[in-house]
């Protein structure tokens, strides 16, 4: 692997990270203690209990046998779905509050998955709530559903905003369908997704003016409002106060930008008190580089070196306009960071040994994690061409230092070599005890999907497969 | 996504289960008639001993002119709708005969309060003002309130109540149901009919 001084990536090409890690980490980082799934399970149970509690007011307030007419039954189902939707919306926002406790307990990867699943459920529940109520009321008033829509919009307070909220929710849900999302620029999608806070605001009123369980003062109404306040407090804490405290404390700045390959750069950052920064290799921050043209965008990048008390580093592939602008960052530029987050770390291992599979620039979190994994790990690094291999010197050094076997698998996905290797048999041949290892995967979606399939067939339990997801 | 599908299916199933469970006829009857809590008339306050729960309201003039059976207008309440089934407490209305003391002066106005009816949405009770053998005003003393009920009750009030409402126009209990407020309309009609029966 040659490190030609290329001018394609960084403006200041300087040197690539030839010795990255070696001189800066005089003491090998500690292997972090394991963090079990206990917190996640506890939270799951709590949320389920909350779901039951949210339907309880309906249950208690509806006398048995009272649903004699179709309209009453349909309306009742509409009320239940309404309560569930109201609750799920709060859970959904809580998931996105970036509350440090939640990040620590659940981790961004699981959170993202929960968010997606709850989001889909929420959308369906809201639509069900709307249709059931419309059908029920229309039946009650002996009018058509369209006329009922008119009545609700015209005569009922807060219903216009509730309908708008539903519209936004449908838009957000629609734009999050994978195929559509891929077609949209990230910024547009993100902006659209941010508008979901409006749902919280616009959907608030109608619950209390018309909610059969919520309109009258009492413990239910108070509790429901308290839930809202709690979620908003979590949101404020996780999105405003905690990041503010973090950035005031560590005061991160760009130290240097260097080219790692023709289309990849590393950004080195320094700051204050970095020795006390509790960060695990494999975690990511959301970075906001405070320069003209960049400050308004925040992107998640993994750190590509474990905490060393002196500097941080992110290694970024130049793929879009934003990442292209990052090549021109001046040293001294202030950086606003939110994090660290993610459970793609050595602390979340279940087994003693690990297999790491990286594809292209997906090596960055794995490179950082390598410093913290117990000795005996194995790394498969997939890259299309030798020039796409990043940080190879560091990897070689780490392989020696941490007793890690590294295989570079170069070539297109359809080449016979990679194909054979990325099959269940190939993996078993390379790593005979693969089923008893944690597998950490980071790379392009195609590689990840293919690998997961092969790993599952090779007998690796699903919970031992760790994916780096930081889409949110 | 698989879990989302599971969650949606689970929610749909449990919502259906909840509704079916609550919908199955239980022990409690919802449309039970509560004994009329005699509301105190604005003018005749205090004079009502409240001994007879179902007694017609005290008249503001101080006299006790109760019209005789003969004064019943031709448009007497008919059983009409199936929902207007005779209620248990209404039987206490029987002692209307002893009250036929004197022929009432046709000019005096009386306030008569109907029985209260509880429905799914709340409590309904109607009071009518009778002058001679005419209903001159109808007032809903109680209607379901809160949430969407406020709107429905408002519709009912606007249609039926007052000196020019449907009650006064029709002079009987066969009112048109207010759309969207079927239950409340029915309870209103039931209460109104009981008031009319007491008054004439």
TrEMBL record, chain A:
It holds the Pfam family Ferric_reduct. GO terms for molecular function: 2 iron, 2 sulfur cluster binding; flavin adenine dinucleotide binding; metal ion binding; oxidoreductase activity. The chain crosses the membrane at residues 42-60, 80-97, 118-138, 158-176, 188-205, 225-246. It is found in: Membrane. It is a multi-pass membrane protein. InterPro entries: FAD-bd_8, FAD-bd_FR_type, Fe3_Rdtase_TM_dom, FNR_nucleotide-bd, MRET, OxRdtase_FAD/NAD-bd, Riboflavin_synthase-like_b-brl. Residues 1-36 are annotated as: Disordered. Its main location: membrane. Keywords: 2Fe-2S, FAD, Flavoprotein, Iron, Iron-sulfur, Membrane, Metal-binding, Oxidoreductase, Transmembrane, Transmembrane helix. The keyword Membrane applies. Residues 11-25 have a biased composition (Low complexity). GO terms for cellular component: membrane. Residues 247-347 form the FAD-binding FR-type domain. This is Predicted ferric reductase. It comes from Micromonospora saelicesensis.
Automatic annotation (TrEMBL), chain B:
Keywords: Signal. Residues 30-41, 64-77, 84-112 have a biased composition (Polar residues). The keyword Signal applies. The keyword Calcium does not apply. It holds the Pfam family FMN_bind. Residues 1-19 form the signal peptide. It comes from the Bacteria. GO terms for cellular component: membrane. Residues 30-114 are annotated as: Disordered. Residues 122-199 form the FMN-binding domain. GO terms for molecular function: FMN binding. This is Uncharacterized protein, contains FMN-binding domain. It comes from Micromonospora saelicesensis.
